[in-house]
Amino acid sequence: MGPEALAQVLRPINTLFSPQNYPQLLVGLTISDDAAVYKITDEVAVIQTLDFFTPVVDDPYDYGAIAAANAMSDVYAMGGEVALALNICGFPPDLPPEVTAEILRGGAEKVLESGGVLAGGHTIDDDEPKYGMAVMGLVHPGRILTKGGARPGDVLVLTKPLGVGIVTTAFKGDMAQPAHVAAAVRSMQALNRDAARAIQAVGVNACTDVTGFALLGHGYEMAERSGVKLRLFLHALPFVDGALEYANMWLFPAGTCNNERAYSHAVHFCDGIAEEVRQLLYTPETSGGLLAAVPAEHVDALGARFDAAGQPFWIIGTVAEGKGIDVEL
Questions:
Q1: Model confidence pLDDT, tens digit, residues 179-206
Q2: What CATH number was assigned to the domain covering residues 155-328?
Q3: I want to staple 163 with a disulfide (CB 3.0 to 4.6 A). Which of 94, 215, 239, 294 is the partner?
């Protein structure tokens, strides 16, 4: 569902759960972040999220692993650790059992990698495969990361390259090179766990993950909730192999247009940025990286932790006073 439609359907229920009546709900509908957070004790809060989607690749194991990594990503974006996961499954009755088993194995092994446990789930018959997870994470109530809190002077850090969405779209149209698909799959399967741990160790002012609303959509949410402007530097943005090539071929998914309609009012591109590149920044991502607003004095320490963990990262912009997003060359 696109961001505009989602906002519309949520509007009637937003007022039913007032924060004044549910003080233990630290992050919920009225705040609208990457996941819900519910305080259990002064030392423990539960992060709750779920995500599922139709196949983005042909290999069933890869599909399961990507879907699981994507579902767990919101826990990491909130600064937590994965504790428990449940499968969400919708499979055609005539799907061969060995295919279903490989999807579930891919998801289960990704949960095992996270340090969490897979404890069951729910299945229904569906015409098209759908798979994902409901995930519970844990975090200290005082160490929750949210989209709000970015401050002028902060440095913007991204932990995965962009462009997997257009590569998988090209793949569905039989237009993608196998090497490009393989690189995109590796990126989508990578957990955001090590990045989140480094971020928690150093301390950041705001954090989100880059998924269906694209870099510009999730970046706008950070800017809007923080009351600041994000300045993104095009020359510093990383892209997976093939992304710019397929953008030049205009192989964009429908979600690109949805994101552009929802967020273009708040985005200013400087002259000289090609239209296909602008569209690429509106293109949905799957299991993307973390976008963090880091105090400038913490950047070197964060970079050292990323390097020690073998975790890639890119400095892609800064936070300034103002509103919305500026994309500069």
A1: 999 999 999 999 999 999 999 999 999 9
A2: 3.90.650.10
A3: 239
